[in-house]
Amino acid sequence: MTIQRYPLRPPQPTPVLTVLLRIGLSCLLASAWVGLPAHAQKLKPSAQLTTGLLGQRIPTTVNTGQQPADFIVAIVNSEPITNNEVGQRISSVEAQINQQGGNLPPRTVLAHEVLERLIQEKAQLQLAKETGLRVDDAAVDAAEQTLARRNQIDVAEFRRRMRAEGMTEVRFREELYQQVTLARLREREVENRLRISEQDIDQFIAEEQSNVDPSRVLLNLAQVLVIVPESANPAQVAALEARARRALERARAGEDFTALVNEYSDAPERAAGGVMGVRPADRYPTLFVEATQDLKTGGLSAVVRSGAGFHILKVIEKSQGGLANATITQSRARHILLRTSPQLSEAAAVEKLADFRSRIQAGKADFATLARENSQDGSAKQGGDLGFVNPGSFVPEFEDVMNRLAPGDIAPPLVSRFGVHLIQLMERRETPMSVAEQRDVARAAVREKKLDEAYSNWAQEVRGRAYVELREPPESE
User: Of 161, 148, 162, which Cα lies nearest the Cα of 415?
Assistant: First the structure.
């Protein structure tokens, strides 16, 4: 049986900016990319759209013979999904996977997965409409403003770049409207019904603590290494082994290990007292792990032989990885905040802070002094110093910029919901998590796991209630 190919919209390229906007949108909205395999999860590009914000049809282009005709690949409750929609979504997903350094699946596999995702989205959008879920223009405006801030530009420039890439404002806002709708629907139907008990958290922490996976053991070893040259004869090897054994005897007798390292060791880390540093056990040679697996902190191994020579290993630290020994990276930054007003436009604030940045980098001005004199934030009295903070303490647009800085770096002016910032990262440090922070991490992990399961089940239920007619398979090329 031949399926009639309906002449709809011709294929359109996926512009670079469109991909970037979709990446930003996926960070902003909570709609999950459930249904794709691990390599494509968390990539949430928008679907190609066919209706406007008020329900009007977006004009379609009839095939002229210069471009291949589009055709319907599936019907969801009387609404079509076209081959071009699938192709455009595939292009977006591929661009994002490539940008993030992932491995692309075969295009035929991806086409099947993308079509299934589009079917789920179509069914969910229909459910939102049937149940009276509405997203007003103010919500779309707010989402657009957030995306503009994340790109560190204002909305007018955001729209200008969008038009330059060939995407109309109507089409983009329609995509944004649908993604906000999907996020609201997911929040209402799944997230708000999810409950995490203290027992769930206790169970998660207990499982973490009982995990004896060797790769999760954190080791810090020090060594004395007596190198054996490749050309050494048996007598020379025996002499070098005897040297290593003398070092071990003295260490077991209580002599300072660092002094023995200085006297006996040929290892590169000799200057550091032989200490090789904290790392997961699987990042040490298997020989070292096996030689120290039954030792406690402070314990000494026997003399062990490797291709390099004879080793004596001392356990400096040993701990089980997981929440009980988890650390968090705290950042200490300072900033200058200028709030926009009728007297100070956003552009003028950006220009002023850019000038501050140039003067500071040239050594002609001091950051703390400029902060005290100009910043409109409560931190001004401290020279803009925000102190050490945990991840998630700042609004996303601020934290995204701060996290990309190396200590001492000053970012270009950043526009946030509070105004315009000049940010300098002062330092970072690792600090152990408190019990409360460990439970917060456990709660988030449990919630994420349960949310993924609940959303997947709910999405399949919505899809199962819809009438779906699969027509001709989408073209994978």
Answer: 148
